[in-house]
Amino acid sequence: MAAPKRPGVVLRSERSPGQYHSMRAHVDDEGTLHVEGEDVDPLLDSFVGKGEVEWSYKVRAEHLPALVEALGGEPGADVIDLLAERYTGEGSYELKRVLNSRVVPVERFLY
After folding, report:
1. 13-63: per-residue pLDDT in tens?
2. pLDDT tens for residues 75-86?
3. I want to staple 14 with a disulfide (CB 3.0 to 4.6 A). Which of 21, 23, 92, 93 is the partner?
4. Are 9 and 24 in contact (CB under 8 A)?
5. Whether the Cβ atoms of residue 19 and residue 41 lie closer than 8 Å to each other
6. CA of 27: how far to CAs of 9, 83, 111, in Å?
7. Domain assignments of the chain as residue spans, ordered by start
8. Distance between CA 82 and CA 71 in Å, rounded?
9. In what helix (H) or strand (E) does residue 21 lie, and over which residues does it extend?
10. What's the Rg (C-alpha) of the chain?
11. What is the pLDDT of residue 52?
12. How far apart are CA 98 and CA 71, in angstroms?
């Protein structure tokens, strides 16, 4: 994975007994947005065959203007600033919905 271009943002960090859900984002030196997460939850076992998954999404630099628009940002807005302002905590679930909606090309990985 390419190194972060600048500090990223923690979008989600939720803990409860037996569960942990995290989500963070950064832009690398090539301008690609990386959104990465980890979910630890016994309920995952029935869906993915194990109780812990790591996942990531990549949005290439050329698609970031369309993503910013889909997220309600102004043209030219910094995607990390936009995510930090509107898509942390509960807002992170909306970000994941947008990324899964295929409004922009997104590379998805599940580990």
Report:
1. 999 888 888 999 999 999 999 999 998 877 766 676 677 888 999 999 999
2. 999 999 999 999
3. 21
4. yes
5. yes
6. 10, 12, 21
7. 9-104
8. 8
9. strand 19-27
10. 14
11. 80
12. 8
